[in-house]
Amino acid sequence: MRKTQGRVQEAASMGQDFRVGPTCWTAFARGASELIRDEWALKLAGEEGARLNARFMDDLGARFMKDVVALRTVYLDNVIQDFVQAGGKQVVILGAGMDSRAWRLQRLARASRGFTLFEVDEPVLLDMKRERLGPSVIAQPLCRRVEIPAALTCTEEWGGALVDHPNFDSSVRSLFLIEDVSMYMPEQDFRAALAKVSALSARDSIICGDWVPRITVQGKLPGATSDIIAVFGSECNSPWLYGPRNARAFSNLLKEAGFATAEQLTSRAIEREVREFLPFGMAQQKIHLSIKSRSWTSYAAWAMCTFAPARLCAGAPSDIGLRVYMATRE
Ligand SMILES: C[S@@+](CC[C@H](N)C(=O)[O-])C[C@H]1O[C@@H](n2cnc3c(N)ncnc32)[C@H](O)[C@@H]1O
After folding, report:
1. How far is CA 61 from the centre of its chain?
2. Which SUPFAM superfamilies is this protein grouped with (predicted)?
């Protein structure tokens, strides 16, 4: 235990080598959003998440990034919950970091028998999560949760560790989530990760996640946004490295790996879908808003934030061009 704490403290103070900063800030953004009820997010974010938020999002004016994270999270929550509702038996979160879905997505509690959620990440990140949540929370996810300690690099055998796990079955439909990770990976690692996911995916399995376009990664956005992203990346020692040229290039990449793109959406398009959930549009809602537990009281709570989406992305120095996607194994 002492050894683990030592490693976690060391990682937190160094930030860099273990890519602690970005995942802590992402958790902070979820905790601070009106769109998501994530009671663990601020704990998971820790001081690092709050510090990064103050430095970059408040001081430097990139508050809109919080909304981008929230909208992306809502979309991906929805994809996962649909998969689970349709009887899906295994969800694999690649680069899980401080993701709290195992405790947060209520539908997981009603998953089919034998359902397992796998979290793949560097051992030190998984240790940090355990320490931040504490033993009682860690012991009570809403479903069976399995940690696979491994980095998503070309050389690391994370796929083998998954296949060897008795609860993983590559002949069964899976959902692979790779959220807020692709931009931090060298292109060859991302391509290798897609190929591995493909090899582990039975027909009709789902891959979902997000990406940012090449111009964002290359720092060619107008206004201050590129500078903010660059400073964030260098202070966390996690620069953004990879982005496809455009949506078609990303679809082609998925196609090469055997996946047919079902959907690619900008954060503004997700925002429009979220608007459909507003009281008068409830009947057509597509987004389940896992965040609110769908009781009348929670609808009422949601109605009270009716105008929250109107504020989303307001005052953005620039759109970073982030897209979320979902694709199925052919
Ligand atoms: C920005 S965080 C996102 C965490 C989580 N997916 C979420 O949305 O909350 C990126 C995560 O990917 C993990 N990761 C694993 N292998 C990686 C790799 N080769 N390159 C970049 N990140 C990697 C990091 O450790 C980190 O936890």
Report:
1. 23
2. S-adenosyl-L-methionine-dependent methyltransferases
CA atoms of 10 and 19, how far apart (whole Å) = 12
Any atom of ligand 1 within 6 Å of the Cβ of 38? no
Distance from Cα 190 to the centre of ligand 1, integer Å: 12
288: Cβ contacts below 8 Å, ≥ 6 apart: 77, 78, 81, 82, 107, 294
Residues 168 and 286 occupy one common structural domain: no
- The tokens for 301 are 């709570």
Helices 267-275, 64-85: axis angle to 10 degrees equals 70
Decide: 99 in ligand 1 pocket, CB within 6 A.
Answer: yes
If you measure from the C-alpha of residue 199 to the centroid of ligand 1, how many angstroms do you get, rounded to a whole number?
21
- What is the DSSP annotation of 286-329? ----TTS-SSHHHHHHHHHTTTHHHHTTTT-S-----EEEEEEE
**Strand order of the sheet with strand 116-121?**
144-149, 116-121, 90-94, 174-178, 206-211, 323-329, 259-266
Beta carbon of 237 within 6 Å of any ligand 1 atom: no
Same domain for 273 and 242, yes or no, is no
Asked if 19 and 59 sit in the same domain, the reply is yes
Q: What's this model's pTM, rounded to 2 decimal places?
A: 0.87
Total tally of structural domains belonging to the chain? 2
Ligand 1 pocket test target in 19, 119, 133, 188 with most atoms within 8 Å of CB: 19
Cβ-contact 320, 68 below 8 angstroms: yes
| Sequence-separated (6 or more) residues with CB below 8 Å from residue 308 | 34, 35
Tokens read off for 233: 């990346």
**How does pLDDT run across 162-213, given as a tens digit for each residue?**
999 999 999 999 999 999 999 999 999 999 999 999 999 999 999 999 999 9
Range of the domain at 305: 268-311
Cα dihedral angle (29, 34, 35, 41), rounded to 10 degrees? Answer: 40
